[in-house]
TrEMBL record:
Protein name: DUF2339 domain-containing protein
Extent of Low complexity compositional bias: 92-107
PANTHER family: BLL2549 PROTEIN
Transmembrane region(s): 128-148, 160-177, 197-217, 224-257, 269-287, 294-312, 324-341, 353-371, 377-394, 401-419, 445-465, 477-498, 504-525, 537-555, 561-577, 584-602, 617-638, 650-670, 682-702, 714-734, 746-769, 776-797, 817-837, 844-862, 868-888
Annotated segments matching region Disordered: 49-108
Keywords: Membrane, Transmembrane, Transmembrane helix
Length: 907
């Protein structure tokens, strides 16, 4: 009751100060009106109480101006305008006293000039020494009490009496010094406020004396101790109004530090936190009256430290709960701007101190729940404070940010509850495992389920109902973010706790219901008239709809479906962005695509060990194929409204998943389901090269239609990958000429996949880029196709002569002759193709092949072949060269030569 009386006294004092300030303001206005009438001006009407006062109109003569200036009474300035921020005032000045040089007069300006000229010695002698001295006095009194206790010099009664006398002496000297200074007509220099410092030291000693009398010696009963502590707190409040910041700072710090300096071996937590509550009330009240932001923040910081003091002890639940509740209530009453007795608030603005003051003590309630193993009393305290935060933030927009803190803390509490050991998992056939079972003081599952349901509904409903209530954009966005995040986060936490992350149809149904609610909210907000923050809030509810649907898929289906659900969610977001042009949705589609990429990076097998060995029709087809299709379709939707970063991200994800689908399926098939096996067979490398070249051809065609930079870069990267795989894979790592690699089958063998098909695809790619990229780029690809074709012909001939293994060092004469004939025939075929199409590139390839054959015949066949093989090699080459010359003269020359004009003669 005494504590309530103290709070009521503080509130009454605040109202009295408001009435006094109002009276001073009205008196100032009346004096200003009288000055105007004395100057010869008569206003038509009296101004309203809240209307600004116009400057007095004076006659346009120097004499009248001088006379008016001399006779016009000095009036105090009007009070500062109301605002949500704490206003700073001059040290030691009451509200309404001069706060600027223009208001204070020349003397104030002179003092400021002297202040700027002060050197180190002046500051040290006039200020710092006094400040340190005041702090030393306070600490000296406390340490004197400690010394008397340790040395046993004086009895408890004498110690307390001396401490009280010392405090009264300091207070009396401080008040005497203040009154004496107020009588001095001239302030010689801006010295430190000695009266304020002496009074602050006396206040700290008084706090320590009363607290020691109650907690250490038991001289005072709880009611008397509460009254005395409240009296000291109110005395500090009143003294700080007179003495300014020096007393406020030292007094509040001393009051909070006192329980540490004057301690006991057997602390009484109830007495401690009742004392902290009284000090907090006094400090918050002073901060409110003087509008000192720094004092409010300091009080919150000290309150948070004491809130966490010894909170791990299981027997301190009651005192800590009392401290958290009282501190939260005091912050709501005196600190939160625009709510109850707090400072005035600006509409649509979130005030940091107001939100932090609630969030800090909400954090303490959450810690209380975790430390006490989710005991029901702790959960009740936490729930009540969250509900109170709702009520406060709903009325005072300055504290809206505390709703975001409440949402995060609610999730933290239930996430920790989900992680801790589940009772079902702690039971084995022989009984509960020792040390794993639940504690006796654990909270009940039923209470957690009811509380979670209440939190989810409350946050979701408030997030929707708060739309359109504020003129500021940040306020509805915070409500919407908390309203979307909290139900989804709680759903995940409960699913982990109850369903053990396994398949659960009930949770899937709940997720679908949440998605329906978010979808309805999205549609209703879309149809409303535009208000501040509504577009972002609508995007948040749309995101919540897709997230809830993704969770429904995850809850209802087996492992691996989370990847699919997130990919479909990205597709849905892209589709919604086309129907509802909300910019954030495009970015959200890209973010979801990035999450899917990270998901497969963590587990490329999608379903883990459940992947299986079935070729093609396995989890890889679903886990990579459906996301690839979703991203491709989503990019089409996003492209309809422009080419930007989100579109390019989704396009890149589509290409990546298409490539990963093909490559992982190849590895899965080649390695019998083990995609992590270290292997690089000719078939695997050949298939990967074929896939890379085929996709590069497709992207080259696609980029012509879309003009997408991602499709352009993707085509280049795939081409470079194919080139490196051909160079290092087909011609080195998996080359059957170098390594003992079995080539089974006479004609249908791995050489077709490794060299023949890549040669055809490289040729097609060279035609796809011809005329659209640099000529050197297209010619390089064409040269690669020619090299692959020549390699296939050579390896196939060697396979016919040597069987399944080609890495023998022996070469037969017939084999060497066959190489020459095959290369020559290949060159002739290329020439025929070049003449029939016609194609200069094919004819140039033919010339290259024939030149290579000529070099082989003269450099290799001449030295290695013997007998008829050498003769037939040269004869065949000669006949072919003559035939080629005849073809060029009779066919190519005739096609390219202009016929002579009629009547002309030829030589």
């Amino acid at each position: 009751m005494e504590f309530i009386a103290i709070v009521i006294a503080i509130v009454a004092f605040i109202f009295a100060r408001k009435a006094s300030n109002r009276s001073l303001e009205l008196s100032a206005r009346m004096a200003q009106l009288e000055a105007s009438l004395a100057g010869g001006a008569r206003p038509a009407t009296l101004p309203a109480a809240d209307a600004p006062i116009a400057p007095p109109i004076v006659p346009d003569t120097a004499a009248s101006e001088t006379e008016t200036t001399e006779k016009a009474p000095s009036t105090p300035p009007p009070l500062p305008p109301a605002g949500s921020r704490y206003r700073e005032t001059v040290d030691g000045a009451l509200p309404g006293t001069p706060a600027t040089p223009a208001q204070a007069g020349p003397g104030f300006e002179e003092r400021i000039g002297f202040e700027e000229r002060l050197g180190f010695e002046e500051r040290l002698g006039t200020r710092w020494v006094v400040w340190v001295g005041g702090l030393t006095l306070a600490l000296g009194g406390v340490f004197l009490v400690k010394y008397s206790i340790e040395a046993g010099l004086l009895g408890p009664e004498v110690r307390v009496l001396l401490g009280g006398l010392f405090a009264l002496g300091l207070l009396a000297v401080g008040e005497f010094a203040r009154r004496k200074e107020s009588l001095l007509p001239i302030a010689a220099l801006p010295k430190a406020n000695i009266p304020a410092i002496l009074t602050a030291a006396g206040t700290a000693v008084a706090f320590a004396t009363v607290y020691a009398s109650y907690a250490l010696y038991g001289f005072l009963s709880p009611p008397i101790a509460f009254v005395l502590l409240g009296a000291v707190a109110l005395g500090t409040l009143a003294a700080a109004l007179l003495h300014g910041r020096a007393l406020a700072g030292l007094g509040v710090v001393g009051a909070f530090v006192t329980p540490v300096l004057v301690s006991s071996d057997k602390p009484d937590y109830w007495a401690l936190y009742i004392y902290i509550a009284i000090v907090t009330a006094a400090a918050f009240g002073l901060a409110r009256i003087r509008l000192w932001r720094w004092l409010a923040v300091t009080t919150i910081a000290f309150g948070a430290l004491w809130m966490l003091f010894d909170i791990v002890r299981p027997d301190t639940l009651g005192p800590h709960a009392f401290d958290i509740i009282v501190s939260f209530a005091l912050a709501a009453l005196l600190v939160v701007a625009g709510f109850m007795f707090g400072p005035p608030a600006d509409q649509g603005r979130v005030e940091p101190v107001s939100s932090i003051s609630l969030g800090v003590f909400l954090f303490g309630a959450a810690v209380l729940v975790l430390i006490n193993n989710h005991a029901d009393p702790a959960m009740i305290v936490f729930t009540l404070l969250v509900a109170a935060t709702f009520a406060i933030a709903w009325r005072a927009e300055s504290a809206t940010a505390a709703i975001g803190a409440a949402a995060v803390l609610v999730f933290a509490v239930f996430a920790e509850w989900a992680i801790r050991a589940n009772p079902d998992l702690a039971v084995v056939p022989g009984g509960a495992m020792p040390g794993i079972g639940t504690r006796a003081d654990d909270g009940s599952i039923g209470m957690h389920l009811i509380t979670a349901a209440g939190f989810g509904v409350a946050f979701g409903a408030a997030g929707f109902l708060a739309q359109g209530r504020s003129i500021g954009a940040i306020v509805p966005v915070i409500w919407a973010a908390a309203g979307v995040f909290t139900p989804l986060a709680l759903l995940i936490a409960l699913y982990a706790r109850i369903a053990h992350l396994d398949r659960s149809i009930p949770f899937a149904i709940i997720a679908i219901a949440v998605a329906a609610a978010f979808a309805a909210a999205t549609e209703l907000l879309t149809r409303r008239e535009a208000r501040p923050g509504q577009m972002i809030s609508t995007a948040l509810f749309a995101t919540g709809t897709l997230a809830a649907l993704a969770l429904a898929f995850t809850f209802a289906l087996e492992k691996g479906w989370l990847t699919i659900a997130l990919a479909l969610m990205s597709l849905g977001t892209a589709w919604i962005s086309m129907k509802r042009p909300i910019p954030f949705l495009r970015s959200l589609a890209a973010i979801l695509a990035g999450i899917v990429v990270l998901r497969v990076g963590y587990e490329p097998r999608i379903a883990g060990n459940d992947l299986g060995t079935t070729p093609i029709f396995n989890w890889l087809l679903l886990g990579y194929g459906i996301p690839a299709a979703s991203f491709w379709l989503g990019s089409i939707f996003l492209r309809r409204r422009g080419d930007d970063g989100p579109l390019r991200s989704v396009e890149a994800a589509a290409i990546l998943f298409a490539v990963l689908l093909a490559f992982t399926q190849i590895r899965h098939y080649i390695n019998n389901g083990d995609i992590y096996r270290t292997s690089s067979s000719l078939i695997e490398v050949g298939l990967q090269v074929c896939v890379a070249l085929a996709m590069a051809i497709g992207l080259e065609r696609l980029r012509i239609r879309t003009g997408s930079v991602i499709h352009n870069i993707g085509a280049l990267l795939l081409t470079w990958f194919a080139g490196l795989a051909i160079l290092f894979g087909l011609f080195f790592i998996a080359n059957p000429l170098i390594w003992r690699i079995e080539i089974a089958g006479a004609f249908f063998n791995p050489l077709i996949l490794g060299y023949a098909i890549p040669a055809i695809l490289a040729l097609l790619l060279s035609y796809a880029v011809a005329g659209r990229r640099a000529a050197a780029y297209a010619n390089t690809i064409a040269a690669g196709a020619l090299v692959l074709a020549l390699a296939y012909i050579t390896l196939q001939i060697r396979h016919l002569y040597h069987g399944p293994y080609l890495n023998s060092f022996r070469t037969f004469d017939a084999e060497q002759y066959t190489y020459s004939v095959a290369w020559l025939v290949f060159g002739v075929i290329l020439l025929g193709i070049g003449l029939l199409l016609p194609s200069q590139r094919a004819r140039l390839a033919s010339a290259v092949m024939i030149a290579i054959t000529i070099l082989k015949v003269f450099l290799i066949d001449m030295s290695n072949l013997t007998g008829a093989y050498r003769a037939f090699s040269f004869i065949g080459l000669g006949l072919v060269l003559v035939a080629i010359g005849w073809l060029y003269q009779r066919i190519l020359f005739r096609q390219t030569t202009t016929p002579p004009a009629p009547g002309s003669t030829t030589a």
